[in-house]
Each structure stands twice: as C-alpha cells, then as structure tokens.
Specification:
Blueprint (H helix, E strand, L loop, with lengths): L1 H5 L10 H20 L1 H8 L8 H44 L9 H43 L4 H48 L1 H6 L9 H47 L5 H23 L1 H18 L22 E10 L2 E11 L4 E5 L6 H8 L7 E6 L2 E2 L5 H6 L1 E4 L10 H6 L7 H10 L2 H7 L17 H15 L3 E5 L7 H14 L3 E5 L3 H6 L2 E6 L2 E6 L1 H7 L2 H12 L10
Parallel strand pairs: 3-8, 3-9, 6-7, 7-8
Antiparallel strand pairs: 1-2, 1-4, 4-5, 9-10
Helix pairs in contact: 2-4, 2-5, 3-9, 4-5, 5-6, 5-9, 5-10, 6-8, 6-9, 6-10, 8-9, 14-16, 19-20
Length: 580
C-alpha cells in the first residue's frame, strides 16, 4: 500500500516518507515487545518469588509509554505527509489536465477526472493515518512477535514466523476474491452519481414528457445495476471470510499445540504456557484488523489507480527551447497550412489552408461538422495537428511556451460554463488582479451591466452550478466579459453570440473593434456577425471552399452566396395558419 501511494509523489519528494516509515516500524516493534513481555512477567508473578515480576512490570510500563509517544508522533507525521501529499497530488492533477490534449478527455475520462479530483485529496489525507499506519503495523507485528518469542521458546517463535506469511496469503486471497465484485460496485455507483446529475439537469425535459420519476429511466436502470453489484459483492465476501477463518484457526491450532507440547516437555512453566496463549491471541489480532480495513483499502487503491492514470496521461509535447509571445504588442496573425486532423479515426480537416491577417476579424462559416470548431481548438493548441502547421504570430504553436500561448488567447465557447460563485467572480476569472474599474468597463462592453442592474444582489448574485441561475444569453455575455477582461490580443469565438439578442450582439461586435487592436476569429452562422467580419472563410468537409470579403463571396455566387441568401430569406418566414 505504501509503495502504491509513494508513486503519487515525484521521485525527489519520496524521501519525506522515510521518517514516517521509521516511526511506524519503531511503533510496531515496541507494541510487539510489550506483548511478549507478558510471558516473563507472568512467569515471575507465579513463581516462588513474585517480587521478581517488578522489573518486568517496569519494562512493560516503559514500553507502553514509549509506544504511546511513538504512535502519537507517527500519527501526526502521517497526517503531515498526507497533507503534503494531498496538496502535491491535487496540484499535479490540475497541471496535467491542463497539459493533455482535449481529445484525451473523453466523456468517461472527464467523469473519472471529476471524481478523482473531488475524492483523492480526502482519501490520501485520511488514508495515511487511518489506513496506511494500521496496515503497516498489522503486517509487521506478527513477524516481530515471532522474532521476540525466539529467546523464550524458539519452537513457538518459529511457528509464529512461519504462519505469518500464510495468514497474509489467506487475507490477500480473500481480497482478490472481492476485488472484481468491488470494482463492479464502484463502477455502478459512479454511473448512479452521473445519472443523478443528469436527472437534476434535465428536469424540465423529463417533466414535459411526464417522466419525472426514476422508473424506466437511465437512473432507474443504474440503481438496479448497483443493487445487483452489491449482492454479488456480498456473495463473494463469504468465500474470502471462510478462507481467512480456516487459515486463522489452523495458525491458532499450530501455535497452541506447539505451546502445549513445549509445556509437556518441561520447557515451559504453566504460567509461561498461559501467557503464550494470550500472546497467540494478540498475534492474530493484527490480521483481523487488516481484514476489517479491506474495503477502505480497496477504495484507496482504486483511487490511486485512477489518479496514476491521469498523471501518466501523455501531455502535449513542449519544445526544447520554446518561444514566448508578447501579449502587450501588436495582435498576431494566424496561419494554418496544409493542416490535417482526425478524431476517433474520422478525418475532420483535410489539407486545410487558412490565413487570418493581424488585427482583422475573420468569420468561419459552413455546415455542421465541417470542422469549424476544430480550427479554433487547433489554434489554441487544445490538440496537435496530424499534419501541417498552425502558426500564431509567425511561430508554430508547438514551439510556443504553452502558458504564453494561452495567455495570448481569449476564448468564448457556445456552451458557456460559469463557475460556482458570484457574477463578479466569474467575470474576474479572466484576470483575477483586475480593478473594479476594469471589470465595470468590460461589463459595459459586453452589456453585463444590464444583467447586474436587474439581479437581486447585483454583482454579488450567485450564478449557481454551471451558471444554472442565469439564462443562456446572460451566461454568454458574462463569458464575453470574462474574455475581454483578459485583454488578450487574439480572440477566438465559437458561436459566442448564439443566445444573445440582435441589439446586444451588435453592441458587442462594435466593442471588438474599439476596445483594443486584436485579431478575432469567429465561428458564426448569424447574418449580423458574418457581415461584421473583414473577411469570411467558408469551410466544408474539412477544407476551405471559398474565402474573401462578404460582398466578394456574395458576388461570386458560390456556396457562401447560397448560404447567405438562405439566411436572409429565413428572416421573412412566417407560420401559416390552416385557414380555420
């Protein structure tokens, strides 16, 4: 167990475990010695001169006090190691999740990462003192008791040492029997957690369909699977208990027979034999303690496995001598040359060429699944291209220092996620050190000031999980203000105004050109957004089909012209009655 946990620490930090392990070993030795001291103590107590027991009483007292001090010190040290380990692991997890390609974060991995981030800290912190210490002690004490018994009765000591690995094998066998069933329970429980969240988020849809309960839903099925998995776990626990019980009884029998035989041979007094029987019972206690912790140990082991999988995820490679972009200078140009990119064996972009001049606004237009959003992801280097190059400011994004690249880019997605907290917290997330005046300025540009004015607590109104307390348009405006506050020279917008009314959209688009010089790349489908662009790129089937100014492409009469005319025609559509 300690070896598994140590893998969560960087190699240069694993030395912090040595003092803790030394204390645990010392504590186990003192505990074992105190147990074995009962043999000479009882021998002297029932001898012809009971006063000879006082030195052993004194030794037992000293060992008890030393054991208490060592255990308390080990517990404090374990908690300190657990705290440091918790902080280190959480920091490394966050860093690694920020380094992996977004394609690695599949829905299943995202859910696993969420559970790991929310659980590993407490698991590691409490596990060091509540699990690791007892398990290490339980592993060491039987061997040490056998070792300390050798001078008193070497046959009994040898039997104790020989039985210890057999009992540990029996305990391990019972754990292995439970492992598969336990993993199924964990997977079923995780599925229930996910379905509960899904149920809460889709209440409006479910109630509209008359299906507000769990019966016949994915949640109901998940609960049923969890129940069946729990029954299987209970069933597999019985063979494990039987195996360990048989091994314990055999060990007890061997130790008792050896003790009685040595008494019959005259090697032990009656008092020594009775004391040895007490020691034998104490000898078996650690195994039972470790068995009682089997469930929590497996949960910790599973969490460590999940954490290790994330920490071992392949990050986007960093150049040996990366360059840094100047975020305070002129806005950068963006170029994609012969870019190829595939996702899940589906080729999304095919030898795509795209040029965005510095300081310009470029709209990317096209049908669904044409690869528009993928282009933005590659510019931000959420993924690496399979072929070709993506350049920002004249540099291949793979050669730019990752933090510098992200500092140069502001991003607004169509599906906005707001963090739990206040409106001000979410806007300030773009630049935490921004002043109130700077926050107010971007709020006016993004029309967030209108939202704040009508909210009950103004800037201090809490947005709820994911921004659930606000409308889609309000969330988008806050997200836009957050990006503007970052003040990045390159702005990537993915349908960022899809939920905003025309008047507020026009105000935001005008603010883009007056706020500061920047390069803007917009994935758009609304006519007003497209018309605002300096030039338009029409993408389909992973390629640039047409590019030019909106007027040039309309005059060309090609794919964009058809798209544009369809958009304009749709504005005059009305719902016809049936004449009744």
């Amino acid at each position: 167990m300690i070896r598994r946990i140590s893998t969560l620490l960087p190699p240069d930090q694993r030395g912090v475990l040595r003092p803790y392990l030394a204390l645990v070993i010392l504590g186990a030795a003192v505990r074992s010695a105190a147990c074995v001291v009962l043999v000479p103590l009882l021998r002297e107590l029932f001898s012809s001169d009971p006063a000879g027991a006082w030195p052993w009483v004194g030794l037992l007292t000293v060992l008890t006090v030393i054991g208490w001090v060592v255990d308390m010190t080990a517990a404090r040290r374990g908690m300190a190691v657990g705290r440091d380990l918790m902080e280190s692991v959480l920091e490394r997890l966050v860093d690694r999740l920020g380094q992996v390609p977004l394609g690695w974060l599949s829905p299943d991995r995202s859910d696993e990462a969420r559970r790991t981030l929310s659980g590993i800290g407490q698991q590691v912190f409490s596990g060091m003192s509540n699990l690791v210490t007892p398990v290490l002690t339980a592993t060491l004490v039987p061997y040490l008791i056998g070792l300390f018994l050798l001078p008193i009765s070497w046959p009994v000591g040898l039997v104790a040492i020989a039985c210890a690995p057999l009992l540990q094998l029996a305990r391990s066998a019972s754990v292995r029997l439970l492992r598969s069933a336990d993993e199924q329970v964990a997977a079923a429980s995780a599925d229930v957690d996910q379905r509960v969240v899904e149920l809460a988020r889709t209440q409006a849809i479910l109630r509209g369909a008359g299906r507000a309960g769990s019966e016949g839903t994915a949640l109901g099925e998940a609960i049923s699977r969890e129940g069946r998995a729990g029954l299987r776990l209970l069933g597999w626990s019985i063979p494990g208990q039987v195996i360990f019980s048989i091994a314990s009884q055999l060990a007890l029998l061997l130790l008792a027979v050896t003790t009685v035989s040595r008494w019959s041979a005259g090697d032990l007094t009656v008092a020594e034999a009775i004391a040895l029987i007490v020691v034998v019972v104490r000898y078996l206690e650690p195994f039972q303690e470790a068995s009682d912790l089997a469930g929590p140990i497996q949960a910790l082991d599973r969490m460590v496995t999940q954490t290790t999988a994330i920490l071992d995820a392949p990050p986007l490679p960093v150049a040996a001598d990366p360059v840094s972009l100047d975020t305070s200078g002129e806005p950068p140009a963006v170029e994609l040359h012969q870019v190829r990119f595939a996702h899940a064996e589906h080729e999304v972009l095919r030898n795509l060429d795209l040029s965005v001049p510095a300081g310009s606004t470029t709209a990317i237009v096209g049908p669904s699944v044409a690869g528009k959003t993928t282009i933005l992801s590659l510019i931000a280097r959420f993924h690496d291209v399979d072929g070709g190059t993506v350049r920002v400011g004249g540099h291949d994004v793979r050669g730019i220092e990752p933090a510098s690249l992200l500092a140069s880019i502001g991003i607004v997605f169509q599906d906005v996620y707001l963090f739990e907290g206040t409106v001000r917290d979410n806007v300030a997330h773009g630049r935490p050190d921004a002043s109130d005046e700077e926050i107010d300025a971007v709020a006016e540009l993004a029309r967030v000031d209108e939202i704040v004015a009508r909210l009950p607590d103004g800037w201090e109104t809490r947005v709820g999980e994911g921004g659930a307390a606000l409308s889609g348009g309000e969330r988008q405006r806050i997200s836009i203000a957050r990006a503007l506050l970052k003040d990045a020279p390159l702005l990537l917008l993915d349908e960022a105004t899809s939920a905003i009314d025309s008047e507020n959209e026009r105000a935001f688009l005008n603010a883009l050109s007056t706020d500061r010089p920047r390069t803007v790349v917009i994935v758009a489908h609304r006519e007003q957004t497209i018309a605002h662009a300096d030039h338009v790129v029409f993408v389909d089937d992973g390629r640039v089909i047409e590019s030019g100014t909106p007027d040039e492409l309309v005059a060309l009469g090609g794919r964009f012209a058809d798209y544009w005319n369809d958009r304009r025609a749709s504005r005059s559509w009305t719902l016809a009655g049936d004449g009744a």
